[in-house]
Amino acid sequence: MPTAATLTARLTLGLLLASGATGAAFAGQKRVPADTIITNARVYTVDKARPWAEAVAIRDGKIVAVGTKATVEKLKGSTTRVVDLGGRLVMPAFGDAHAHPLFGALSFTRCSLHNGKSIADYQAIIRKCIADNPGTGTIYGAGWEDSLFPPNGVPHKKYLDAVSTDRALIFDSVGGHTNWVNSKALELAGITKDTPDPVNGTIDRDPATGEPIGSLQESAQGLVQKLIPPVTDKNIQDSVKYTAKLFNSLGIVSWNDAGVNWEDDGSSAMIDAYKAVHDAGELTSYVTVSLTWKNDKGMEQLPGLLRAAARGNALGVPTHTVKFYVDGVIPQKTAYMISPYEHSHEQGSAQVSPETLKQAVTAVDARGMHAFLHAIGDNGVRISLDAIEAARTANGKKPTHHMVTHLNVVDPADQPRFGKLDTFAQFQPTWSSWYPYMELTEQAIGKERMKHIYPAGSIVRMGGKLAYGADWPVATANPLEGLEVAMTRRTAGDPNARPLVAEEGITLEQAIESHTLNVAYVNGFDKVTGSITPGKNADLVVLDRDLFKIPTHEIGKTKVLVTLFKGKAVYGALEAAGK
User: Fold this and answer.
1) Sign of the C-alpha dihedral computed for residues 449, 451, 456 and 459 taken in this order
2) Are residues 356 and 467 in contact, defined by beta-carbon separation less than 8 angstroms?
3) pLDDT tens-digit profile of 501-534?
């Protein structure tokens, strides 16, 4: 029979649990005071065991209690900082499962076209870049939109030649799949009408003369690579710092670098940069690296790739994922489709053969690594899922979390396969609001296939899971805009905008989980972040409005007031947020 003391202890513990405090907070005989208590807040935890709370206690950068104000404040000591947030919403800090820090930072810090809204805007920006960088070298930048070059998103050199024919001008599209170049760049690169298209690439040409028109698709971008100013180690490190600062301001403390280059000896300048920035104490996020599968090689590259992964992990940079570029994009008809494009015999093509893809994904899965597959066309999605299915069949059930990203079109027959294959569907939610781009897409694939565009809701209803990644700088990295568009499928902030297949929207709770806990899982950090759970690190955001109480079309306008990473403010200040 239990003693009176035992019964008293059990009753005390039961009252604590019933009132919302976590049992872990009071483990042991002595209650160690918290360093910080956040109280009088609306705490959405993304923890199914306790989705809502009023207060959070933090000690040594970790969450030690989550519950009611009264119970959590039992951990208050003489030196505890108590911050009253006046009812503000607190959530887990966001994660991003798909970012390109080097491309993104250089895109904005070189000759950025991102703010241009017309070809004339682009020309004005480029003229200023030339004036700001006197000499004879190449002017390189990024950020032009496919939609400004109808009907197929292919730009012409004549617009750049009107700015300069003396210096090479080279600009990446916002998605990074196309270079727009002027005549001087073509000349210096030796590209003529007699230059053959490289494997997995296209030199766009005048249909009458065969002359290059100044647009280079996919691997054809490599033909002008030698003209682009080389990137230094400092550039790479600065890119990591730039991204960390930007992402922290948006509430993000975890990202996947979705396509890192490596050498056959296992070295990687990007991994070295992460190590250097981390050692300098300036990497205020969890980062995992996805090594790029080289489509111009076959299975013979596997030993070098594994060396690079082993080296990254040994340096403390998680390197457990391989990024496969399976196909291209729809407007330029490089995405791989099951049926031909509208008014065409073209279907696009796979940039890596289906058989090689199966072998590679199976080999990666066998070693406990994760496959991360870029697939935009419905056939690109299908062969990606086929490869994952082959791996699951060959290796049995393994704790590998494979992802397919973009998913512009997913055939209905393939939508249930995400749940069946335990594979995450990784969408870029704001892409659903890109109407000029969607118009180019509809012209290319027709109205019937547009019914199956970004089918997030269907995949969730069929048992699949989502993990969000913005593909920054292709789209805004702002998770709050992403949450809104994921729900409404329309332009953020515009309740009157036409939704893109409205039934494919998801709930706020699903969208938040897909941008927090699910991203933490696929990035490999779910044991330490992604939810407000005792034992995890104190990675939190404080928002200026309550997402659960405002009109949906205002969610994207919400601002992050504070971002905590391991209990420390890396953006904003807690005390200021409570005022």
Assistant:
1) negative
2) no
3) 999 999 999 999 999 999 999 999 999 999 999 9
